[in-house]
Amino acid sequence: MLSCDICGETVTSEPDMKSHLLIVHMENEVICPFCKLSGVNYDEMCFHIETAHFEQNERERNFERINTIQYGTSDNRKDSTLQSRMEVNSSIHSACASNHPKISAQSLPKDATLKHKDLYSDNLTESRKFLKSKGKQCDQTKIKESIYETMYSAPECPFCGKIEDCSQDMETHVKIKHANLLDTPLEGKVFILCCDQPLYDCPMCGLICTNYHILQEHVDLHLEESSFAQGMDRVQCSGDLELAHQLQQEEDRKRRSEESRQEMEEFQKLQRQYGLDNSGGYKQQQLRNMETEVNRGRMHPSEFHRRKADMMESLAMGIDDGKTKTSGIMEALYRYYQNAATDVRRVWLSAVVDHFHSSFGDKGWGCGYRNFQMLLSSLLQNDAYDDCLKGMSVPCIPKIQSMIEDAWKEGFDPQGASQLNNRLQGTKAWIGACEVYTLLTSLRIKCRIVDFHKSTGPLGTHPRLFEWILSYYSSEREGSPKVMCTSKPPIYLQHQGHSRTVVGIEERKNRTLCLLIFDPGCPSRDMQKLLKQDLEASSLKQLRKFVGNLKHKQYQIVAVEGVLSSEETAARRQDSQIFTAEKIP
Known about the structure:
Blueprint (H helix, E strand, L loop, with lengths): L1 E2 L6 E2 L2 H13 L15 H11 L1 H18 L3 H25 L10 H11 L2 H11 L6 H12 L15 H11 L1 H5 L6 E2 L8 E2 L5 E3 L2 H62 L8 H14 L5 H17 L7 E2 L2 H11 L4 E6 L5 E2 L10 H14 L16 H13 L4 H6 L13 H10 L2 E8 L10 H11 L9 E3 L5 E5 L2 E11 L4 E6 L5 H4 L16 E3 L8 E9 L2 H10 L6 E2 L2
Parallel strand pairs: 3-5, 7-10, 9-16
Antiparallel strand pairs: 1-2, 4-5, 6-8, 7-12, 9-15, 11-12, 11-15, 12-13, 13-14
Helix pairs in contact: 3-7, 4-8, 6-7, 11-12, 15-17
Keywords: Acetylation, Cytoplasm, Hydrolase, Metal-binding, Nucleus, Repeat, Zinc, Zinc-finger
Main location: cytoplasm
Subunit structure: Interacts with RPA1 and RPA2.
């Protein structure tokens, strides 16, 4: 008799053993009960299980020991246990599958899921493979007992883990204790299951608890986590806001610093431009420029000392030294218009006026003072103003500065005085129409300021300015001669950055108007060319200004109209507290 080493079956002959091996063991392919490996022989499969599935194999052996201790080794007992477990597993599996098709291993607790898999996954296959693994060591009966003891233990509840003695008890337990689970869809729920207790849903995550206190603790954890997250968000938000605030403050500080620096630079530039940078006045500039001329070889040292002496004498007396004055131009113009100027229909000339130009001491800032000298030179030759200007001569520039300061002290134009720090002497401060008006009014000379504050013609021109000056000089009588020598003083004309003196106006044969202007920037050698007997039209080019030549944004004029009484002078002083000018248009 021959015995099969694999299954223990006995046969009578060697051919029968070969047939047995071929039919029973070769045709039935050996498959790994854990990973489904196939295509290898018996020895290779045993080696594979021992090496690759050592932990699973050990667990099965432990189950075998426990079952042996609990239920003994009786074949009948084992068979009964196997049958009961199979019945319980079958009933539970069928109940869950039929009533709750959505219940899956993923929806059950981890322990229950593992037991569920152990009970229902490939039991027969594992039994068969385990039988083969024991074939070499045990007979057929012992192998079956080992399989029963390893694969099956007392029935265990897949929901709460309770162990019953038989399948009927387990079925009753499931129906009574877990009826709510069998009747309620469980998809998407996470369970903490406990028998004999009601279930509570977490309102925040859907977790099902069997105890109210557990649920409360669980919800408290949610709240603590949320509170912590919110606190961290607030801390982060607070830190971000503080950082943003600091960055904004730093940016504002830099911006204010840059604005302050730019304002200071602009202010210093304006101070230099208007002679308020404490770099000295007329006397200091005159000496510096003469020294420069000597150093460049354009002035002899003896000439320097002679001019310095004359300057000191002029400053001491407060009278202009006359070195920049050119007289007789108005008479020369009268002769020219009488004998030539065929393209001129009529011309109106102001009263006699001398031309004054800038010198070393006031070059770049003294135009306002020089125009006042021109205007005053005409008034001093007009008998109508003898009472106001008795014993007066054309003052030098420092004297004019002193006279304006005296007018401020009397209460004229306090706003203008404040803008110039109530001080002109010893500075190169510019003066304009307001300061000339203030000085003339303080001398009781009646005058007016007219502000042509915007253009009144095409291309930024000011035809209204020309019309106003024509109206000022003309008598508007028909049959008037070609040349009108009026008694009207010249007009002080101010615009941005410069000032000039209007001494007459032409009406051309094409009805256009042309102003005759003395410019303090024009030196004496050019003005003296107008004194020639054979004066040519080209020589008047520097005097003539047509409408298209005056395109500054704004012009102001100071026009003398007579003499003021003491009461009128006081009234105008009061009016100058808030300085206003007549505006055209």
